[in-house]
Amino acid sequence: MSPVFLVSLLLLARLGFSSWSAVEAGASYNVSYDHRALTINGQHRILNSGSIHYPRSTPEMWPDLISKAKEGGLDVIETYVFWDQHEPAKGKYDFHGRRNLVQFVKVVQKAGLFMNLRIGPYISAEWNFGGLPVWLHLEPHVVFRTDNVPFKAHMERFVRKIVNMMKEEELFAWQGGPIILAQIENEFGTWPLGTSEHAYSMWAAKMADSTKTGVPWIMCLQFDAPDPIINTFNSYYADSFTPNGDNKPKMWTENWTGWFQSYGKPTPYRPVEDLAFAVLKFFQRNGSFQNYYMYHGGTNFGRTAGGPFITTTYDYDAPIDEYGLIRQPKWGHLKDMHQALKLCEPAMAKGDTTLNSWLGPDVEVYAYSNETERCAAFISNSNTSDATVNFNGRSYNLPGWSISVLPDCVNVAFNSAKITAQTSLMAMKPVEHLDIVKWEWYREKVGLWSGNVLADNRCLEQISTAKDTTDYLWYTTSLQVSETEPFLENGTDPVLIIDSMRDAVHVFINDELIVSAQGVWGSPSVQVIQPIKLHAGTNKIALLSMTVGLQTGATGYDLTGTGIQGSIYVEGFENGTLDLSTQQWLHQVGVKGEKLRLYEADGMKYVAWSSAVAPTNKSLTWYKTYFDAPGGDDPVALDLHGMGKGQAWINGQSIGRFWPAYNVSSDSCTNGCDYRGVFNSTKCVSNCGQPSQRWYHVPRSWLEPKDNLLVLFEEIGGDPSSSSVVVRAVDKVCGYVAEDYPPPLSKWSFGLANVSFPQLNLECGKGQTITSIDFASFGSPTGKCGNFQRGLCHSPKSLRVLERRCIGHTKCSIVVSSAMFGGDPCPDQVKKLAVAANCS
Ligand SMILES: *[C@@H]1O[C@H](CO)[C@@H](O)[C@H](O)[C@H]1NC(C)=O
Ligand SMILES: *[C@@H]1O[C@H](CO)[C@@H](O)[C@H](O)[C@H]1NC(C)=O
Ligand SMILES: *[C@@H]1O[C@H](CO)[C@@H](O)[C@H](O)[C@H]1NC(C)=O
Ligand SMILES: *[C@@H]1O[C@H](CO)[C@@H](O)[C@H](O)[C@H]1NC(C)=O
Ligand SMILES: *[C@@H]1O[C@H](CO)[C@@H](O)[C@H](O)[C@H]1NC(C)=O
Ligand SMILES: *[C@@H]1O[C@H](CO)[C@@H](O)[C@H](O)[C@H]1NC(C)=O
Ligand SMILES: *[C@@H]1O[C@H](CO)[C@@H](O)[C@H](O)[C@H]1NC(C)=O
Ligand SMILES: *[C@@H]1O[C@H](CO)[C@@H](O)[C@H](O)[C@H]1NC(C)=O
Ligand SMILES: *[C@@H]1O[C@H](CO)[C@@H](O)[C@H](O)[C@H]1NC(C)=O
Ligand SMILES: *[C@@H]1O[C@H](CO)[C@@H](O)[C@H](O)[C@H]1NC(C)=O
Ligand SMILES: CC(=O)N[C@H]1CO[C@H](CO)[C@@H](O)[C@@H]1O
After folding, report:
1. Ligand 1 pocket, residue 28 CB under 6 Å
2. Of 812, 784, 818, 813, which Cα lies nearest the Cα of 798?
3. Which of helix, strand or coil describes residue 462?
4. Is the CB of 373 under 6 A from ligand 3?
5. What does pTM read for this prediction?
6. Cβ neighbours of residue 671 closer than 8 Å, sequence gap 6 or more
7. In this structure, which residue's CA is closest to atom 11 in ligand 11?
8. Least enclosed by CB within 10 Å: which of 255, 267, 607, 658?
9. What domains are there in the chain, each with its CATH number?
């Protein structure tokens, strides 16, 4: 960069954030692309996008989620289209409620954001069967995602239906709508494709292009996507990705903000310092579009979770939490970064980045310049140790594993590891304990419950038998034991062996639950080896087999099947091993209470519920009670920590599967997690030794003010009286800001070397105020929110300043400088301000 250029920078005026915001509502506009970026009306755009899946929240939540995404600095909302939800039975469509795709797109449009519509229709997404309808699998000769005539015909019909629906509603960009991109297929290039799969993917690209959406199509992780389809990347980092053509921009469609949770595994989280580092590294190296997967994860209501073994919560450690509340500091830190990137957009939009200086393997400076007036630089330190970097005659300090953003090539507007956004600690506050006396109950019969049974001399495959209308399939048979069997006398119980089944099974012998067994995500197969007590005469064997969400992907996943798969035999008879596999089995689909819809006001009447004190630790038990909606508008959840495994309904709506009995092993958690260094899904995890999922989101809009019907179906045994209704709210807010952090972006100015101080901002939740200050120290405090400690340097006025400015207010803001604290407590050090405050 020339000195002349620097001088011209100094003359620049400040740029408002709004001047690069989305196109005027209702006006039609063109979307295209070239090597550098997507172009909107001919202008290159640098875009930040976030995934929000409409069926994972309620229509009542959508406007608030989208507005929080906009306030967080996103330009684009991404969603998949969920085929199984829209066509639950062949030719029968559903676009109502949580499935109202058009309404969702219009909420995005109303907010003035763009939309990336990932039609798929194969979507993976930790969703049941990867989003493809189960009826399609049951159609004759259908094989998913191959060069298969009936599969392609159904897929094309659905894709055209969605495209036409968007056209009719005028939702594409050229019609004045928000949709600027569409996606066909999904992550198909992650394993080597066979000839048939490859032919199919090329057909899919061509078919998509022929629908004439008027906006670019993308394929993610499809490295050979043919023109004009753009191939995009998904991962934790994408800086080293290159698209497959010089005419295509570098786009990142899934940047994992965290990771999904599965039963039995700890809860993954991703530090925002690392997430911001990954985003900036991507933009530093010619990136032009990136999407957070997820920005709001939400909830897998009903039986929509796939996997198998994905939990009902799909929180994902996303910037907006499962309940729709902002997650701090993640949301706020990314917001600050988006604002800094907006300042860089004029320079970045012009052309490719150039390596300005290379100061060893770990420190790089890249600058974008639009040749006349704008220059933006990204200084990266990929070493885990801090670094001091000289650039254009100035010196910059960078923490390890961080990137600084200089929208004018002079001043730092943002550093990925210096978080000025507050941390919020959330609480699940009990509102109503669901006392034992309030529950009524009804016990299911073990095994067959109606005459509608299927007999066969083998165990039938579960998906083709139950057609995914329910999680459950009973396999029953009987076993004769002669009075002369030695084991009846000699004390050695015979052993039941189920070679292989999936995903989980409850074994009942003579109506008693003997054992439950289940797989885990990634390894769904189960083997059972269990001693059983048998008596002389006829013994009943009843296996309740269940799916825990159908598999979401992998080659041939549609043909894998579930239920009992291997042989079943009993060892320990006088005459050796008894093979049960080939004897007669009676199958019954589902459980009775589900068939009768006991969870609805109408269906409930079909059985006699007992109001005697509810039994605990009893398998196959239905429980019901009523509760009033908590006051206020904090999000609501059920605490089901005492329950085993089953499903829950509120006023007839399924809030999903629960399984608190599936504890996370206690040894897999790391104590804390260093954001520095390459991240992966097992690096930072929590919740060890605890139930996989304790709290279950109950959308406010499903509640009446009084007498809400709660029904639980417990499969293995639990204690409903330990359940309660809770609300989620901010409990404590903290800040930790050093003097040398960047100033607020509102105070930042182009090229002026304007000395402005950073600020520490605190804000409680809606309707709350700051009630007390637990900790305040301006000096050299250390620690984290919840356990800050004073250092040797401490300004005695710290607490008084904070109390005066904050108590009684919803939010407060403190300039981090000695002047604010009446003098410098230690002149030769960089001071930090740490504060912890209570909200209520
Ligand atoms: C979109 O592009 C077409 C063809 O390049 C052009 O005729 C039209 O005016 C453009 N529309 C807008 C709104 O820029
Ligand atoms: C950015 O693009 C330019 C032009 O294609 C190329 O020379 C440069 O190496 C790229 N930079 C990075 C970091 O990929
Ligand atoms: C450079 O950016 C400035 C500010 O947005 C703009 O006014 C100018 O036209 C741009 N120059 C070029 C050559 O794009
Ligand atoms: C980081 O820097 C140190 C000191 O310069 C060096 O020894 C080390 O190899 C660098 N790399 C990494 C990955 O930490
Ligand atoms: C074992 O097999 C023999 C020969 O078939 C038969 O006589 C005997 O009754 C069997 N024993 C039992 C306990 O069924
Ligand atoms: C009891 O009888 C069974 C069947 O004959 C045999 O397998 C087992 O070893 C016997 N156990 C003892 C302790 O003798
Ligand atoms: C629940 O009942 C089973 C037997 O049905 C028993 O093995 C188990 O210990 C009981 N658990 C509790 C917590 O009472
Ligand atoms: C994930 O990261 C952790 C911590 O850095 C490391 O120990 C582990 O080997 C990594 N796992 C994989 C699959 O790379
Ligand atoms: C699961 O963990 C909780 C909390 O540590 C504990 O109370 C409970 O007994 C555990 N449950 C099982 C089935 O191990
Ligand atoms: C810093 O910026 C503010 C406005 O943003 C301006 O009023 C002030 O004069 C500037 N200070 C310096 C030293 O340039
Ligand atoms: C290749 C890969 O691991 N893809 C995963 C990316 O993340 C999404 C959402 O978590 C998964 O659905 C993909 O399987």
Report:
1. yes
2. 818
3. helix
4. yes
5. 0.94
6. none
7. 125
8. 607
9. 46-327 (3.20.20.80), 426-443+594-728 (2.60.120.260), 454-590 (2.60.120.260), 757-839 (2.60.120.740)
